[in-house]
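Much of our argument rests on the idea that a fold can be written as discrete symbols. Part of our work consisted of pairing the sequence of a single chain with a tokenised description of its backbone. The amino acid sequence and the backbone structure tokens for this protein are reproduced below.
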Amino acid sequence: MNENQKEYITPKKNKTSVFIIVISLLLIAVFFFYYQNRQLEAEKERQQKEISRTYLKLDSVSNELDIRIKEITALGGRADTLEYLKAQLETDKKQLLLDAEYQRAVITKLNSRVDGYKELLLIKDEEIEQLKVFNNRLTKENTSLKVEKNRLNESIQQLKENTQELEQKVAQASRLEIQGMKIIAVSKRGKERDNQEYRNRHIDQLKIQFTVLENEIAPIEGKGLLLRVVAPDGNVLFDVTRGSGSFSFENRELFYTAKQEILYDRNSQLVTFLYNKGSEYAIGQHMVEVYTDDYLIGRGTFTIK
């Protein structure tokens, strides 16, 4: 082989060696990148598992705090500290899920805090047991007091019922009564007829007379006597200009024909109403009723022929 051939072969071998070196370096770089990526993925997966475990621990402690808060509150204790810790714990839970920097910085710290929470829960369990004992004692005492209170209430209620019954009896007994009602027709000449049946020409005025009976337990006071004259068709003779009006009786409004005030002094007294209708009466039976203090004290009838 001559010198020219040697010079031609040497550069070709050098190029092959360089190519092999470059390929090797690329393979090494790809392998390193793949290895590093797998390491990062493994670390990320490990960190995510750690986050999940920490979150579950925090969530479990949060539920336990809820239970203790409800128990202590129900027993009448104060749960301010637990409520504050629960609020702080909920904030930690949110940040743990949202903030990557926070995750890396505080996972270990939060795990240590969970242990502290658990110790606090044990202390609160002792407090709850003490509250239960105290409340059981109070319940027994309250039960005894309630029994006494119920007995006292029963006695008071019985006394009220007896008092009300007595008041009702007194009120009933103190009601006024009338007797001897006369319905007299007075003619224009002053002639009086007292036979309960009249003709219109005989009536210029109606004279309604009765005796309010003696009652020793009725109060001495002024009494308003309300007179109702009810026509055969059920309508009340009513004329405001002649003193008519209305009053309440058994939760309904009734009209009255005339009214008269008397001073009742527990003695019997004669009462007279004079009523001038000013027009003819309807044919048929009329009803006359007398009320006072919203109750009926007497009635009578007369007939127009």
